[in-house]
Amino acid sequence: MVQKRTVKQVEKSKDNLKEKKYNSTLFILTKNEIKGLNALFQKIPVNRFAEVIAIDAQSKDGSKEFLLKKGLRVITQKKMGRAEAFRIGCAVAAYENVIFFSPDGNEDPADIVKLAYWLEQGYDMAVGSRFMKGGRSDDDDVWLPIRGLGNKGFTLATDILWNGKLTDSINGFRGMKKSKFWRLNPDSEGFGIEFQISIRALKLGYKIKEIQTYEGDRIGGQSTARTFATGWYFVKLLLRELFIGKSFLRCVQIKEKYNVK
Ligand SMILES: Nc1nc2c(ncn2[C@@H]2O[C@H](COP(=O)(O)OP(=O)(O)OP(=O)(O)O)[C@@H](O)[C@H]2O)c(=O)[nH]1
Ligand SMILES: [Mg+2]
What we know:
Blueprint: H1 7-19, E1 22-30, H2 34-40, E2 49-56, H3 63-69, E3 73-76, H4 82-92, E4 97-101, H5 112-120, E5 125-129, H6 146-162, E6 174-177, H7 178-183, H8 193-203, E7 208-212, H9 227-244
Parallel strand pairs: 1-2, 1-4, 2-3, 5-7
Antiparallel strand pairs: 4-6, 5-6
Helix pairs in contact: 6-9, 8-9
Bound molecules: guanosine-5'-triphosphate and magnesium ion (MG).
Residues 29-31, 33, 55-57, 77, 80-82, 85, 102, 104, 106, 138, 172, 218, 223-225 line the site of guanosine-5'-triphosphate.
């Protein structure tokens, strides 16, 4: 017979989840994000993760010094770009589950543990979706919502072409199993990395969990994403993925460059 749990027991298990420590690696990605760090750092649940590493793109505004002062390990990128940060992260992470967080105000630190939770539940990838019911994108507020429309268009095309049910194939706020990351042989540059990962994950039938996320406005610093250049890169990336199918599995594996076995 199934035993009913008392209210006290249910409350206690909820508390356990609140306090739970994750055997996962949390990455904080920065490129001149000192304003965001000042505003958000205390909300980042660093104590809930067995490993926290910052990956910094040679910030000149004191972001690196800030993170070092907080006692974090900071890796300084030699080669720029978010794709490079993802690859460096997956090469050095001590844990299988990795989460990437960017402290520029776009991502809600409260969602970090939710991503970690779903990875622990067995998902290969967990993604914050700005376009699910209840989600929100700061791009939606722009008078000419070109980025929001572009994002939705790319996701729609991806779902149609690779039979997916994604609502946000591009958002950077995500976590993955690092072994599954390397299996995708992700060779994209810069801001294309998330889109490439989403497409290839669909090609290989990965278990993907999307959670609704609220994308706030950038707190300070400068956007590094150039809308039209990034959009054009996405178009080329999509066409290439269409053309190559699953042949990336048989190509030279990019992980070898990062000394990953
Ligand atoms: N480690 C690392 N982080 C980066 C790099 N480029 C950008 N970032 C960080 O990645 C996050 C996303 O970059 P943004 O420039 O905000 O791109 P975006 O969110 O599309 O643009 P906005 O809407 O203006 O915020 C920010 O926290 C950046 O600091 C990089 O080369 N290396
Ligand atoms: Mg941003």
